Amino acid sequence: MGGISLINVRKSFAGTPAALDGVCLDVPECEYLTLVGPSGCGKTSLLRVIAGLETPDSGEVLLGGKEMRTVPANERGVAMVFQAAALYPHLSVRDNMAFPLKLAGMGASAIEERLRQVVLTLGIEGLLERTTGGLSGGERQRVALGKAMAIEPRCLLLDEPLASLDPSLREAAGAELRRIQRRLGVTAIHVTHDHAEALALGDRVGVMHAGRVVQVGRPREVYERPVNRFVAGFVGTPRMNLIEGEIVRNGGLCFRASERCMLEVPPHAAVRLGEHAGRRVTLGVRCGDVRVSGKGHAGDGAWEGVVEDLRWTGDGVIATCAAGGVRIEGRAGEQVAPGDRVSIGMDLARVHFFEMGAEGRAIAHGVA
Ligand code: ATP
C-alpha cells in the first residue's frame, strides 16, 4: 500500500501544448481523490504517467514513497480501469479476471481463492461463466473493476469509470465504488469531467485546468472557497454567476458592473478590495444566493432587469435575467414570467471576488 505523489511532472506530445504542465499532487494512502477538469486538460495523461504507460519529460512520480522512473508499468502495483473497459469479449468473466494473475505466475487454486473474494465483494458470482461480450455496460464495468481488484493493486486509477453506465445506475455504482475502495483500503484516483460526481465521491477533489492541478481540497472547500475564477465557474450546478466590473469609491467602496448595476462592497471583502480600487475585478455569486422577484420586492441595492428565460430544476425555478448589460441567473419566485421586469437581489454576505482573467485568483470569499 502507499500514497501517490507527483512532483512537477511535465509531459508534452508533439504538436500540442503541454498535456501536463508541472503537475504537483499528493494523494495520501487510502484516500479516494476525484480529479475533474474539462476535456483535454490532461486527466488521462496524468493517470497514464502514474501507471507507467507514459514517461514524463521531467518531474517525479512516487508510489509508496518510491521513485518510479525506472520501474516498469507491470511492477508498479497499479491497476487502471478505463471507461472503455479493456476486456476480451470472447472470454468468460472468470477467464478475463484470471488472465493477469496467470501471467503473474499464480497457481490455479490461489487464483480461485482470489477471484472468490473479489466476485463476492462485487456481487458478480452469477456472471462468472458468461462471456463479457454479452454483458450490459454496468456489468462490464463491475467485471473490469473486479479484474483490477484481483491483482490487489496498491493504487487504483479509474478513468471515467461511470461514464458508460446508464445515468440511473451511476449514483449507486459510484457509492459502490467507494464502499469497495474503503473495504480494500486502496489509494484511488478517479478521473471524471462531471463536477457533481467529483464532489459527491471524493474524499478530496482535484481540479485540473490546462495541464495543471489548480486546486485540491475537500469537496466543500473547493465549492465554497474556489482558489480562482476557473474553479469557481467550473465546479457547482448551476454554474456560479461571474460578473466583471470596476471597484470604485462612491462614498463607500462599490462594485460597478454598469451604471445601473452597482453594489456596496460587503464587509467581508472591503479590506482586500480596498487595494483594488480603480481596477476591474470579477464578482462571483451562486445562483442560489440571487433572488429574482416581482419589481419592488428584492430590497435595497437590488438591480432591475428583465427575465429572458426560465428553467425548472425540480426543486425550484431558475431565471436568466438581463440587467443593464449584465446577464445573471437567480432563483425565481413562482409568479415570475419571461419578459417580466424584475428586481434582482443578492445575499451580499455570500459573494466572492476574483482578479480578472480566466484564472484570476480569489480576492475574497463569501461567508459559507
Ligand atoms: P478527456 O476528458 O477529453 O478525455 P483529458 O483531460 O483526459 O481529456 P488528455 O487525454 O490527458 O486529456 O489529453 C491532454 C492533451 O494531450 C490533449 O491536448 C490531447 O490531445 C493530448 N494528447 C494526449 N495523448 C496524446 C497522444 N498520445 N498523442 C498526442 N497528443 C496527445
Write a structural description.
This protein is an alpha+beta fold and 368 residues long. The protein folds into two domains: 4-234, Rossmann fold (3-Layer(aba) Sandwich), CATH 3.40.50.300; 241-364, Nucleic acid-binding proteins (OB fold (Dihydrolipoamide Acetyltransferase, E2P)), CATH 2.40.50. Helix content is 26%, strand content 34%. The protein has nine helices and 21 strands. The chain has helices spanning 43-51, 93-103, 108-122, 137-150, 167-184, 195-201, 219-224, 229-234, 267-274, and strands at 4-11, 20-27, 32-36, 58-63, 66-67, 78-81, 155-159, 187-192, 204-209, 212-217, 241-250, 252-258, 261-264, 280-285, 290-294, 303-312, 317-323, 326-332, 341-346, 352-354, 362-364. Strands 6-7-8-3-9-10 form a six-stranded mixed beta sheet, with helices on both faces. A hairpin with a 2-residue loop joins strand 9 and strand 10 (212-217). Helix 2 packs across helix 3 and helix 3 (108-122) packs across helix 4 (137-150). The longest helix is centred in the middle third of the chain and has 18 residues, at 167-184. It is elongated, with a radius of gyration of 25 Å. Adenosine-5'-triphosphate binds at residues 13, 16, 19, 37, 39-45, 193.
**Poorly predicted regions:** none
Tell me, briefly, the overall form: elongated
CATH fold assignment of the largest domain: Rossmann fold
CATH architecture heading of the largest domain: 3-Layer(aba) Sandwich
Structural class: alpha+beta
Biggest pleated-sheet summary: 6 strands, mixed
H/I helix tally:
9
Largest sheet strand order: 6-7-8-3-9-10
Radius of gyration: 25 Å
Number of strands: 21
How far apart lie the N and C ends? 36 Å
Question: Which small-molecule species are bound to the chains here?
Answer: adenosine-5'-triphosphate
Please tell me the overall pLDDT: 90
**Proportion of strand residues:** 25-35%
By CATH's scheme, which homologous superfamily of the largest domain applies?
P-loop containing nucleotide triphosphate hydrolases
Question: Could you state the order of secondary-structure elements as H and E?
Answer: EEEHEEEHHHEHEHEEHHEEEHEEEEEEEE
Structural domain tally = 2
Approximate helicity band: 25-40%
In the CATH scheme, the class of the largest domain would be: Alpha Beta
